UniProtKB/TrEMBL annotation, chains A, B:
It comes from Paracoccus lutimaris. The keyword Flavoprotein does not apply. Keywords: DNA-binding, Transcription, Transcription regulation. Residues 10-77 form the HTH gntR-type domain. The keyword DNA damage does not apply. PROSITE patterns: HTH_GNTR. This is DNA-binding GntR family transcriptional regulator. It holds the Pfam family FCD. Transmembrane segments: none annotated.
Length: 225, 225
DNA sequence: GGCGCTTTACTTGTATGGAAGTATGGTTTA
DNA sequence: TAAACCATACTTCCATACAAGTAAAGCGCC
């Protein structure tokens, strides 16, 4: 709110946290992987304390599990947590789509269309990371368009569990279907059809996890519950 | 999942965190209050390190704000965050009520009625803390009854912002209204009326914040946004 | 009187040493 | 052979010292 002018150098602990957080969400650190304070500390040439504090923050996010005197491990993907995230996002984003269809703010809708165009490009280029990042922005814009940008802050926490999964399962077919569904949502909103917008949003979020059973079967050691 | 048999003594840092967390939610540590690592550490006779780690976890919860080299403060209540929490809970618990009305699991519904009875008792006794705790359990039971207990884990984070507010504003009138609305929700579920159950749940959650403007006017220094 | 520098007393951030607990592999013992 | 014991090498946890930055009070100067 106030100090957006000056940018102070982020602390060592924050940098380590950001680094680990990004690697976990991208699947570079797979579920079950072991982390070591001393190992990471010596690797990047700092003391154990900042690394330890980064672990604590990862633990609060539910992305790491600290077992006292035993070790720290990347959390496995909780199936029930993923399903809960889906249920919550279906309910909330369904409401947001309905709201947006009755408001139809021109600027936000244009930004959403721009993201869909970006998704076409990222899909053709095979840029999975870029695609998922644009996907995130699209859903965030839905909250903005509904006049509840702050809602996205809370949904983002839920997305992290789902994103780990999507980095594993995102294939060409899914990307094409995702883009088509995004367009469906936006078209319904543009038409001012609240009912259709809610249904499209709910359908989209529900089908996002159709591959979950296959992923569990293929990589059982990455999941729990 | 596995080690529920043996209970290991919680670490010093966890105990400090639990203590602070509880005090913040109850309003004993008001928004804007200043925290000091050294002060708390010497007060309870430990070193700064565990206290510091408790601060970090409070920061992840959004309940404290750590300003580097300046100090740590209890977060003010973000109005937009509270409104977001309400929107999310309306959408999600509306769906949960609808689901429960179609399932009608007898055991869970009995437990919900028992909580309502407890709320009557706590109300008569003027036990505000006990009332709010029973209120929490009632809403948690709604998730359990719908077969999605894990959803409550996520909703609990959102509740913390709202609970700080409720500890400030909870008066006799609100408690009576709350109990009546809980009963409405449960009755609609028992009747198997999904539509009425969803409406009752949404109405209840929406009206939970009717006193927000008054609270902001009365204690402006506790709020932000 | 009022502006500006300096000192001083704070704050959190990082490094390091040791304490306590855990797991593993080798050794001893029956 | 097999089971119990023990040494050892880990892990996270806590305490302590110091570093780096902030803020405010005090003092000198104009």
């Amino acid at each position: 709110m106030e100090s957006s002018i000056i940018t102070l150098a982020p602390s060592t602990a924050s940098q380590v946290y950001d680094w680990l957080h990004r690697r976990v969400l991208r699947g570079e650190l797979p579920p079950g992987a072991r982390l070591s304070e001393t190992e990471i500390a010596t690797e990047i040439g700092i003391s154990r304390q900042p690394v330890r504090e980064a672990f604590i923050r990862l633990g609060s996010d539910g992305l790491a599990e600290i077992r006292p005197q035993r070790g720290t491990y990347i959390s496995k993907i909780s199936i029930s947590a993923v399903l809960s995230a889906r249920l919550i996002r279906e309910a909330v984003e369904g409401d947001l789509a309905r709201l947006t269809a009755s408001l139809r703010p021109p600027q936000a809708l244009g930004a959403m269309q721009a993201e869909i165009d970006l998704q076409h490009a990222a899909d053709s280029a095979g840029d999975v990371n870029g695609f998922i990042e644009s996907d995130d922005r699209f859903h965030r814009l839905l909250a903005v368009a509904a006049g509840h940008e702050a809602v996205w802050t809370d949904l983002e926490r839920l997305k992290s569990q789902m994103n780990r999964l999507r980095h594993m399962s995102m294939r060409a077919f899914d990307r094409a279907r995702t883009i088509a569904q995004h367009q469906q949502i936006l078209d319904a909103i543009r038409a001012g059809d609240s009912e259709a917008a809610e249904t499209a949003a709910r359908t989209h979020l529900h089908q996002m996890l159709t591959e979950l059973p296959q992923m569990v079967a293929q990589y059982p050691e990455f999941f729990t519950d």
